[in-house]
Specification:
Helix content is about 30%, strand content about 20%. It has helices spanning about 15-45, 55-65, 75-85, 85-95, 175-185, 215-220, and strands at about 100, 115-120, 130-135, 145-150, 155-160, 160-165, 165-170, 195, 205, 225-235. It has a six-stranded antiparallel β-sheet. Strands 7-6-5-8 form a four-stranded antiparallel β-sheet. Mean pLDDT is about 80; it is low at about 10-20.
Length: about 240
């Protein structure tokens, strides 16, 4: 004769498995939600680079951190998965969308100085007055310059200044005309005549320090395929870790 199992009394106030599961979900989601808030706040305040490709990473992280605690695995393994899941995904996003560049020479002084290490967004479309990395035939290394004029704009160099559609784009923050004429003029060193209208798929790039810059005044406008990415952040150097304008 077999003995029956003892009857277990039901206590309404005792936590059920369902309640314990939701508690584990809340604990598991905490790190991802805190990281998401920190990333959003850091980019809004300008403390971190705005890397739009990271948003899907956080979405996956929050979803996974909610699902993993429901699995029947040890709590330690749950924590390890929740904490380390975003690392390979983040590394993949950064590798696919970003690269780094190192400044050589004084062509972008005082904005950038030699030795600065920059984060470059290879997915960014050309936009006026952004700093871009591009390649030119005959140059051993990629160049870093400011995009001064877009396709279809009328480019003119006069009185030591540059104009795009009659809007002064260099010097960017003003300055006395005679000072720029005498100390940092903006002449054309390639024999190109100005004013000239850029054709389709022609971009005019100029160094912030024209007197020591090899740029579109020498080799002419460049095509879209030559532009490899936009500088979005300083990783090391004169700016430390921070934005670059």
């Amino acid at each position: 004769m077999t003995e029956s199992a003892p009857e277990v009394a039901f206590t309404p106030d005792e936590p059920t498995d369902h309640k314990r599961s939701w508690a584990r979900v809340a604990v598991g989601m905490a790190p991802s939600l805190v990281a998401l808030a920190a990333w959003w706040g850091g980019t809004a305040l300008g403390w971190l680079p705005d890397i739009k490709g990271l948003f899907p990473v956080f979405v996956v992280w929050v979803f996974a951190s909610a699902m993993v605690p429901l699995a029947y695995i040890r709590k330690l393994y749950c924590l390890l998965i929740v904490f380390f899941l975003p690392l390979p995904i983040t590394a993949f996003v950064l590798a696919m969308n970003f690269t780094t560049a190192r400044v050589e020479g004084a062509s972008m002084w005082p904005t950038l100085v030699e030795g600065d290490v920059l984060l470059v967004d290879t997915t960014a479309d050309p936009a006026p007055l952004g700093i871009y990395v591009f390649e030119v035939e005959g140059e051993n290394n990629p160049l870093v310059k400011r995009l001064a004029a877009m396709p279809g704009q009328l480019v003119d160099l006069r009185f030591g200044r540059m104009f795009a559609d009659d809007v002064e784009v260099h010097p960017r923050r003003g300055g006395r005309t005679d000072e720029w004429n005498t100390e940092r003029p903006v002449p054309s060193v390639s024999g190109m005549s100005f004013p000239r209208t850029l054709k389709d798929d022609q971009y005019f790039l100029l160094g912030d320090n024209p007197a020591q810059s090899r740029d579109s005044r020498r080799f002419g406008p460049v095509g879209r395929d030559s532009i490899k990415g936009r500088v979005v952040w300083s990783l090391k150097g004169s700016h430390g870790f921070g934005p670059v304008e």
